[in-house]
Amino acid sequence: MAYEISEIKKIGIGLVGFGILFSFLGIILFFDRGLLALGNIFFLTGIGLLLGWQSMWQLFIKKANIKVIVYQPQLVLRGYGAPIQAFLYQIPVIGWILQYPFQLFGQLRRKRA
């Protein structure tokens, strides 16, 4: 084999895999905080072992990458606004709290017209 993977890199690959698995399960199970946190920890630790800690730190600190990290979730979740809003409105107490200001605003607009 031309390129052998060291034991540290094997562990890093395993941790990245577990990170992806736990993140996927966290999303499937309605954004379970515990699973998402474990997924993030495993993933970042695995990346640190694969790239090296200094390289990983430099990767996240670059000015161009910080912009991507900040704006990427907005781009990914842009099309899911209406379904997320409909789901949140169906939750018993939280849905009423979220809908109340919009209902009040709608009633005020109808009274003016």
From TrEMBL:
Coiled coil region boundaries: none
Transmembrane feature ranges: 12-31, 37-57
Record-given protein name: Vesicle transport protein
Keyword Oxidoreductase: no
UniProt-listed GO biological process terms: endoplasmic reticulum to Golgi vesicle-mediated transport; retrograde transport, endosome to Golgi
Family: Belongs to the GOT1 family.
Keywords: Golgi apparatus, Membrane, Transmembrane, Transmembrane helix
Entry's localization field: Golgi apparatus membrane
GO cellular component: cytosol; Golgi membrane
Pfam families: Got1
Membrane topology: Multi-pass membrane protein
Species the sequence originates in: Leersia perrieri
UniProt keyword annotation of Transmembrane helix present: yes
